[in-house]
Specification:
- This protein has a single domain, classed as MetI-like (MetI-like fold), CATH 1.10.3720.10.
- Helix content is 86%, strand content 0%.
- It has 10 helices and no strands.
- The protein has helices spanning 2-26, 39-48, 50-82, 84-99, 102-113, 117-141, 145-153, 158-196, 201-210, 214-248.
- Helix 5 packs across helix 6, helix 5 (102-113) crosses helix 8 and helix 9 runs antiparallel to helix 10 (214-248).
- The two termini are 19 Å apart.
């Protein structure tokens, strides 16, 4: 564990060093400022409350889209993985949505629903559901028939079978879908905010892009990346290790 933390720290320091060298070679803070040049604008944005306000709006959209995409995707994945008839009917839909560009769905949701919060969350959710469904479907197909037979012999109620037989086997697939999901969702949320919201990190990046303010673009981008890395390292990765532990037992 300590070795892993050390390797991560060294890797991030290497990235920081690369940034410093690139900024020195550029020698133009309007193109790429040095890392320490972001401290003052970061402190100003934090003290004014703007950074936390817009960061909070983005995180709320990420949370809503994540919960909805995981819920719908898990249900669809289990049903398609367990029923060949349902899979035959829904698989073409899945292929279409998997290959539909995220930008197209975002624009269509804004055109059909309007520039509203519901449209923003719907666009992100629809973009992620097919990926979650695909991962969970493969997990449902890999469920042990022996454990299914055991549950049938003991006449386990549906809830007990779901809790003690199905979900433990699906947990690694759900963890994989969650990790990839959170990584994709927050990127799409920024695009949604960039195109049609008046709050959020994506909105602020769009604003500072128009002003050619690279420093503030980096402040908002790295602030949100730091939060999502914390979610990844402190929540998702430990949970994934925990749900995989029973397979190694």
């Amino acid at each position: 564990m300590t070795r892993g933390v050390g390797a991560t720290a060294l890797s991030l320091l290497g990235l920081l060093g690369l940034w410093i060298v690139a900024a020195a070679l550029t020698a133009d803070p309007t193109v790429l400022p040095q890392p320490w040049a972001l401290i003052a604008p970061f402190g100003k944005a934090l003290a004014s409350g703007e950074l936390l306000y817009h960061l909070g709006h983005t995180l709320l959209r990420v949370a809503w889209a994540f919960v909805l995409a995981m819920s719908v995707g898990c249900v669809l994945g289990v049903v398609m993985g367990r029923s060949e008839w349902v899979n035959q009917w829904l698989d073409p839909w899945l292929v279409v949505f998997l290959n539909l560009p995220a930008l197209v769905l975002i624009v269509l949701c804004y055109l059909w629903i309007g520039l509203t919060e519901a449209a923003a969350i719907a666009a992100v959710t629809l973009n992620k559901i097919p990926n979650v469904t695909t991962v969970i479907r493969e997990g449902a197909r890999a469920l042990s028939p022996d454990l299914d037979a055991m549950a049938a012999v003991y006449r386990m109620p549906f809830i007990d079978r779901l809790r003690h037989v199905v979900l433990p086997q699906l947990a690694p697939y759900m963890a994989a879908a969650a990790r990839s999901g959170i990584a994709v969702i927050w990127k799409i949320v920024l695009v949604v905010e960039f195109l049609g919201r008046s709050s959020g990190v994506g909105f602020k990046i769009h604003l500072y892009f128009q002003l050619f303010d690279v420093a503030m673009v980096l402040v908002y981008a790295f602030s949100f990346i730091a939060v999502m890395l914390a979610v990844e390292w402190l929540a998702l990765q430990p949970w994934e290790r925990r749900v995989r532990r029973w397979r190694a037992a």
